[in-house]
Amino acid sequence: MPKFSIIIPIYNVEQYLPKCLDSLVNQTYADIEIICVNDGSPDNSLQILKKYASKDERIKIINQENQGVSIARNVGINNATGDYILFVDADDWIETNTCNILNKNIEKNNLDLIIFNAYIAKNNQCNLGFRCNQESIMYSSMWSICYKREFLNQNNIRFPQNIKIAEDHVFRLNALSCSKNIKILQDYLYYYLADRENSASKIKTVILEDIKTFEYLIEQDWFKNTSIKNQSNIVNFWLKLIGGTLFAVPNDYIHIQELNDYIGLIKNMENFSEYNLKNLKNLEIFILLQKLHLFEIYRKIIRPIGKYCIVLPYRRFKEFLRSKNG
Q: Which end of the chain has fewer CB atoms at under 10 Å, N or C?
């Protein structure tokens, strides 16, 4: 069995795939398998995979009809044979010594998770760092963690298949809540491409899917066995996530009802009955959400009503009087 299984979900990434695969086949630590799950990609991604697989027997290609990234990653986990699992998105890449560094730490410790840092690549520049430490562990990314395969299987940790966006957050939060032995490395091993066109993270309605994901966690009783401290971390995490998304998308894509539902969701969650909102580190984001909700009501409801029911009729009435007096 290999030491590492590297799982790549693949869909419409022919432009980026070679760079990703090069970073994997050229790893200085060779005891790896590269599981490529082709999720019904209609472009030339499969041909690229076959070309690389013909030269490197460590590459395993799994073809399936398009079912989404969650199922693709779960298929990868189910077919993995390595002691540890890494996830790499097909438009990203990793340092060639990633597996070597991880292996050295694994040999010294029986770790469930190893968290490392990442670079954010934007406009062909890779100098933007994504740094993780003990305080920011909740905000680490799914792909900047190495997972023990036995740990994932024993705790039945898989990607949720009924949500479209932020499925990686659910997976990561599940792993963090179950893990007992974590190590955080200071090494920057991952390169995340932040400005790819048509990326799932750039879908304009991402805010609605983030809310659905939060609701999914509650429906699945995810919080019931979670400590109050972890609850605060999770609420802070989701406030930061939703708040950041809200102020990044155009106003036309913010839906008043969903925004109101989200605010109510935070206020009324039974599982947070013991949790005081005053303790939120990101309380200012929550307050901004409420203000944004009020502004959207004004912008989309009150102002149009005032315009068409008061301002325009008044202007027409004044024009009528002028024409009559003229």
A: C
